[in-house]
Amino acid sequence: MDTGKARRPALPATAWAVLGLLSFGDELSGYDLKKWSDFSLRFFYWSPSFSQIYGELKRLEKAGYVSARRVAQETGHRDKRVYVITDEGMAAVRHWAREAPVEPPVLKHGVMLRLWLGHLLEADRMREVLGRHREYAETMRQRAEADGARAEEAWAYPSLVLKWSQRYYAAERDLADAMLADLDERDRRLR
Questions:
Q1: Contacts of 114 (CB under 8 A, 6+ apart)
Q2: Quick one: signal sequence residues (predicted)?
Q3: Using one digit for the tens of pLDDT, what is the confidence trace for 30-84?
Q4: Which of 10, 21, 36, 187 sits at a 20 to 30 Å CA gap from 157?
Q5: Packing angle of the helix pair 13-22, 50-62 (nearest 10 deg)
Q6: Is 115 within the bounds of a domain?
Q7: What does 94-150 look like in DSSP terms, one character per residue?
Q8: Calculated CA dihedral for residues 26, 83, 2, 16, nearest 10 degrees
């Protein structure tokens, strides 16, 4: 059992996310990791770019948390590198998941910032911004629902996070509706 006493390198959250994707036991290429992050991480964290994924894979390989090998492609294209988590990497990500301090999410909400600056916008423009946000939230809710329905049994916990994502985006949709109603009420009072 890992006691967590071993000295581990300080890694950014993106590295832990990439290592976490590998913790499900599959041997994955950088492309596969991007596909899986688009399938799950994008709903609640973000989906790192290819360059970020490959950068983190280099960092994780240097730390001994992943190993890589080249695999010939059937299509005749150049060989691809696939990565697998090492025992040390599994112990590290398990320790991080168990022991890392729970950091509160940082809200960086562009729509709220624009509403906060509403005195600089026309009311119709603010309604348009809120309407677009509402549409986006509903689209993301639907995507999380669809992706959650396809999740494999091995992804039981990610499926729960997709359910959380559905609820989150439904709440964002409903908050946009409430803000639109608040704008209508504000306009009625000002008349």
A1: 121, 126, 129
A2: none
A3: 999 999 998 888 888 888 999 999 999 999 999 999 999 999 888 778 889 999 9
A4: 10
A5: 80
A6: yes
A7: HHHHHHS--PPPPP--HHHHHHHTGGGS-HHHHHHHHHHHHHHHHHHHHHHHHHHHH
A8: -90
Give the model confidence (pLDDT) of 124-144 as tens digits. Answer: 999 999 999 999 999 999 999
> Coil, strand or helix: which one is 80?
strand
Residues 86 and 121 in one domain: no
Q: 0.85 exceeded by the pTM?
A: no
Amino acid identity, position 113: L
**Is residue 17 assigned to a domain?**
yes
Closest CA relative to residue 40, chosen from 157, 168, 178:
157
The mean pLDDT value for 94-108 works out to 91
Q: Collect all residues with Cβ–Cβ distance below 8 Å to 190 and sequence separation of at least 6.
A: none
Q: Buried (b) or exposed (e) across 124-145, using 16+ Cβ within 10 A? A: eebbebbeebbeebbebbebbe
Domain that holds residue 163: 110-190
- Mean pLDDT over 8-30 rounds to 91
**Maximum pairwise Cα distance, the chain:** 71
